Amino acid sequence: METSNKRSVKVGLFVFIGILVFVVGILTIGSMKKVFSSTITIKTIFEDVNGLKPGNNIWYSGVKIGTVKTIRFLENSKVEVMLNIEEKSQEFIRKNAKAKVSTDGLIGNKIIVLYGGTQKVPSIEDGDELVVEKMESTEEMLAVLSENNKNLLGITSAFKTISKNILAGKGTVGMLLNDERLYNDLDQTLGAMKKASVNAQALTASLADYTAKLTQKGGLANDFATDTVIMKDLRGSIARLNETVSSANVMVNNLKTASAELNSNKTSPLGVLLHDEATAANLKGTLKNLESSTEKLDENMQALRSNFLFRRYFKKKAKEEEKQPAKEEVKEQVNQ
Amino acid sequence: MSAKKKQHVYSRSLDHAFLAVYNAYVFFIRFFRETFRGRMEFQEMVKQCYAIGNKSLLLISLTGFITGMVFTKQSRPSLAEFGATSWLPSLVAIAIVRALAALVTALISAGKIGSSIGAELGSMRVTEQIDAMEVSAVNPFKFLVVTRVLASTITIPILMFYCTLVSLMGAFLNVTLNEGTSFIAFFESAFEQITFLDIGTSVAKSVAYGFTIGIVGCYQGYNASKGTEGVGKAANSAVVISMFLIFIEEVIIVQVSNYFRV
């Protein structure tokens, strides 16, 4: 009986230990999530982890790829965070990817977010260290926000003063809003501008008309723009004109030289004619004599026509002249 | 004196404790052996199922309804602080489906069924009815213990589902009175976050709780001694031990389910 009791106690102890091991084992395995999935460990060094704890999740492109393994202090108040990354995600994370501490939702748990990385760089390996980007903490953000609030207050105060001045009619804008004379001037100006715009409209219409004509085929301007031959002709004409101008230039130069010669050389016949008054008076007298002589000669010639010796010649000539037009008419009729 | 001392392996209390563990272990093993051996007492089992379910239905209805309503009422201020009262249905549903319904059902059943089984079997033991059955060639273990344990193992999950529904109705009543949420909107929102893992875990829990309530009640009643005092002690121990084990199982099952949860 005693032996049996002893054995029962021992079996009871064994069962108790068995149950204990089972319970402890379950609790341990349950708390060690994904204990059997193979992982690699990488390192990051933060200056501030914002309350990150071991077991917090790691996200890459919004997908959970692991958990925070350990957090420990290094020298110079730096914090070393070891990350357990699932081996199946390893190939997608590059060595130049960055890490930052973020929040799961607005008020959620702290998480580590891995991001970035380029395809050219190889994938991370066990023991690698990722670069950390410093994130603004909530306190820093609030400090900036507070500064912004102060600025906003300053801006609104300035606006308050400005609106007060405007209401009081001070300054350009205030005058503009409150001065009736200015308003009238502005109104007139606007009227003038309106007219000007009407004119401008008419002008643009004319311009449009003109440009329409320009585009019309056969016009001079259109030919200028489109005809390739006319330009060539024009160029030729201009070249010739240039030549003519050059010739004219030479001629003018010659004339200039000649006139200079005339002016300077007063002994030459022309110089004498131009400069010597006595000669001019003589010449004038000569010309007068010549005029009277020609009148007299004309009279003599008239008298000669009436002379019996030459009368017959003149009559004959007059008859031939009369016959000439009649012959031409007959020729034309024959041709027709 | 020295001869008496030698009778203990470790100490008197430790020996008693380990002996109790041993006896429970033997009872446990015997249960499985008897379950799969010989003819099954189906009629008795069905009768026990009806008795267990029927006995607890009203109590569980009331408790479940109040639990759902009170939990919703208590959760509202916290969510209202973030302006997230629209999440109330899903929050309450997660709490009820994952933990509350199974736990409330198990605790109520432990009090109601566990004590009933312990007292019933205890009085049968004390009045030597069990011995009489053994003499009359009826296997009292199979007839009394196996049927009751199986009945509670089957009935408690069913009661758990019923309790879930009633709790959600309680939660819905509270939500609809405060937020004016419609029935369909409430249940759509409530089941949005519920997964098969939650329901599976809940079923596994209630199976474990049912088995625990049945086997602890039967063990305490079957091994009752010392006359009428023993009957009361058996009923009391059945409730206390089963409740204690229920909480331990809760922790273990939650840990296991968390392992499967991504």
What are its keywords?
heterodimer, A: 336 residues, alpha/beta, seven-stranded mixed β-barrel, 10 helices, 7 strands, 65% helix, 15% strand, elongated, B: 262 residues, mainly alpha, 2 domains, 9 helices
Question: How would you portray this structure in words?
Answer:
Chain A is built from ten helices and seven strands. A seven-stranded mixed β-barrel of chain A has the order 1-4-3-2-6-5-7. Chain A is α/β, with parallel strands linked by helices and 336 residues long. Chain A is elongated and about 210 Å long. In chain B, helix 4 (88-126) packs antiparallel against helix 6 and helix 4 packs antiparallel against helix 9.
What is this entry, summarized?
Chain A is α/β, with parallel strands linked by helices. Chain A is built from ten helices and seven strands. Chain A has a seven-stranded mixed beta barrel with strand order 1-4-3-2-6-5-7.
SS-derived structural category of chain A = alpha/beta
State the helical fraction of chain A: 55-70%
Q: Describe the biggest sheet of chain B?
A: none
Net shape of chain A: elongated
The DSSP helix count of chain A reads: 10
Assembly state (oligomeric): heterodimer
Which series of helices and strands of chain B comes N to C? HHHHHHHHH
Largest sheet of chain A: 7 strands, mixed, barrel
Spans where pLDDT lies below 50 across 5 or more residues of chain B? none
Report how far apart the termini of chain A are.
Answer: 173 Å
What is the H-and-E element order of chain A? HEEEEHEEEHHHHHHHH
Percent range for β-strand residues of chain B? under 5%
Rounded mean pLDDT of chain A is 83
Strand content of chain A is 5-15%
